Amino acid sequence: MAGSPDDTHFGYETVPLNEKQDRVDDVFHSVARRYDLMNDLMSAGLHRAWKDALVTAVNPPKHDAPFALLDLAGGTGDVALRVAEAGGASTRVTVCDINADMLAVGAERALERRLADRVTFERGNAEALPYPDRSFDCVTIAFGIRNVPRIDRALAEAYRVLKLGGHFLCLEFSSVDVPGLEAIYDYYSFHIIPRIGQAVAGDRAAYQYLVESIRKFPKPKAFARMIEQAGFRRVTFTPMTGGVVALHSGWKL
Ligand SMILES: C[S@@+](CC[C@H](N)C(=O)[O-])C[C@H]1O[C@@H](n2cnc3c(N)ncnc32)[C@H](O)[C@@H]1O
Q1: How buried is residue 194: exposed, middle or buried, by Cβ count under 10 Å (0-12/13-18/19+)?
Q2: Cα 15 to the chain's mean position, in Å?
Q3: How far is CA 186 from CA 29, 74, 247, in A?
Q4: CB 220 within 8 A of CB 44
Q5: Which of 221, 251, 225, 253 is nearest to 238 (CA)?
Q6: Is the pTM of the predicted complex or chain greater than 0.70?
Q7: Which of 22, 58, 69, 99 is the pocket-test mutation for ligand 1 (most atoms within 8 Å of CB)?
Q8: Cα–Cα distance between 100 and 157 in angstroms, integer?
Q9: What is the pLDDT of residues 40-80, one digit of tens each?
Q10: How many Cβ atoms are within 10 Å of 28's Cβ, its own excluded?
């Protein structure tokens, strides 16, 4: 953990809590236009399967029943567009992200996919959401919570804006738990990913931050406890791909 309560991590660096957000914002301003391509290259397309598992867990109604999803730190809308496509005509998705460049890419994608009437893109901070209490049926956050400086505040906000009976789902990088895979994963993370970041997105540091921030994120059981501390019940998690990622789930009951 970072030493002082006013400090946190930016990758392996210890930084003041109020500096982390600016550093994270710089990362995503820099990579926004290449973000989706990088995801495919770095994960060899696996992020699609992980996001499909998230969409299955969201389980938007296929018939014309109203369903409101908030996709926090939703960036270029990858999860939001998948949920909108999986759901019926009354499935509405709000993508909330702090970074205008990521949102701009997402809004263009929604227009291209003819989903702009059901998927909206709004700028907001996950730590202080611009929505009333009990507004959404489901809140998702994919590969986002690790970047938020005060995770406990973001979890409390997710809880606040969910309706009673609402579902919280968090997809995030986790801890590899398969003997043998760890060494390969570490080599790939520290030697290959930053090089792909340099070659494709022109930003090695952004992808060095990615691999370091993954190592600093709490282990899945500890993160499940944080979700419970925010008030969620029936908290569970499912590791995928040998623990490379985990899907955490909790309910507002
Ligand atoms: C790795 S991207 C994930 C994007 C998308 N969810 C996906 O899975 O493709 C992380 C996103 O978190 C956003 N983010 C970082 N801090 C945030 C905050 N405090 N509030 C809202 N979004 C934030 C970034 O701007 C970025 O778009």
Answers
A1: buried
A2: 21
A3: 26, 27, 21
A4: no
A5: 221
A6: yes
A7: 99
A8: 21
A9: 999 999 999 999 999 999 999 998 899 999 999 999 999 99
A10: 20
